[in-house]
């Protein structure tokens, strides 16, 4: 696997962290995942905004400016011999001098950037994926809020493993009230009677950056769309469905539990895919124009 790391400014093929790093010991860290398109990072500022929001949830300080983090991302990408990259930005609260749940005062956070090679051209799956509604509930907002993108993903990992044990590729997770929240690493969208629907933030989701851009596209083109609380029974009348995330962008859904979607990928899914690629290309060209000569 082609990989580059940048740990606190040192770029290498691999990196190591201390066994006393709080991100390693407790998942006491935050992160963002960005991808490149046409060689340029896409949506980085939106991801950095969310990184700082996650830090607030964890009472954590991010001591570097957005400009510094962006410069380190770009410095890392410049050394990558491949065309397109998956980029993971991780901020750990820091490294302890002894094992203790209580964070030590004056800890120095660590900044890790990992870049790895991805397919040079995004492709919309014609096959789609099979989802199951998990019996494992999404973390409650009053416990560990899904609105914070933290290094603690055990809730999602268990749901994913259990879905795979049932022959599915991913899981949809409910909250304590029985509302659909999201998949293990993606936001859910369905189309019913020509209306695009997605769960609202207050059911307990991570507000995806791709979700944000798709919402902009829907509104720009006047496609009926709404944030709505969805129960499992609402899914059985969906004509099409898809997941959205920052790396694979959009993934059509062909089946949820035993229900097979009539369209996969559907007409609206295909339209949003094409418009999303146009948006990414436009943003990439705008980024090129502001680069120093």
UniProtKB/TrEMBL annotation:
The keyword Transferase applies. GO terms for molecular function: transaminase activity. One of its GO terms (biological process) is amino acid biosynthetic process. Keywords: Aminotransferase, Pyridoxal phosphate, Transferase. Its cofactor is pyridoxal 5'-phosphate. Belongs to the class-IV pyridoxal-phosphate-dependent aminotransferase family. This is Branched-chain amino acid aminotransferase.
């Amino acid at each position: 696997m082609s990989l580059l790391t940048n740990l606190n400014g040192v770029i290498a093929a691999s990196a190591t962290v201390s066994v006393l790093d709080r991100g390693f010991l407790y998942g006491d860290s935050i992160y963002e995942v960005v991808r490149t398109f046409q060689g340029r990072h896409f949506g980085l500022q939106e991801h950095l905004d969310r990184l700082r929001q996650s830090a607030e949830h964890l009472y954590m300080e991010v001591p570097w400016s957005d400009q510094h983090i962006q410069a380190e991302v770009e410095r890392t990408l410049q050394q990558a011999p491949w065309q397109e990259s998956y980029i993971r930005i991780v901020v750990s609260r820091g490294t302890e001098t002894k094992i203790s749940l209580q964070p030590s005062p004056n800890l120095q956070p660590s900044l890790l950037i990992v870049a790895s090679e991805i397919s040079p051209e995004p492709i919309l799956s014609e096959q789609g994926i099979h989802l199951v509604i998990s019996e494992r509930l999404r973390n409650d907002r009053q416990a560990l809020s899904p609105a914070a993108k933290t290094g603690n993903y055990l809730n999602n990992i268990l749901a994913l493993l259990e879905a795979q044990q049932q022959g599915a590729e991913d899981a949809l997770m409910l909250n304590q009230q029985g509302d659909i929240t999201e998949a293990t690493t993606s936001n859910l969208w369905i189309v019913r009677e020509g209306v695009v629907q997605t769960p609202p933030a207050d059911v307990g989701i991570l507000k995806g950056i791709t979700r944000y851009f798709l919402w902009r596209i829907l509104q720009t083109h006047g496609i009926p769309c709404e944030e709505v609380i969805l129960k499992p029974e609402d899914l059985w009348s969906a004509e099409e469905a898809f997941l959205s995330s920052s790396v694979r962008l959009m993934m059509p859904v062909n089946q949820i539990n035993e229900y097979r979607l009539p369209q996969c990928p559907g007409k609206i899914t295909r339209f949003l895919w094409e418009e999303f690629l146009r948006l990414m290309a436009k943003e990439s060209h705008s980024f090129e124009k502001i680069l120093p000569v």
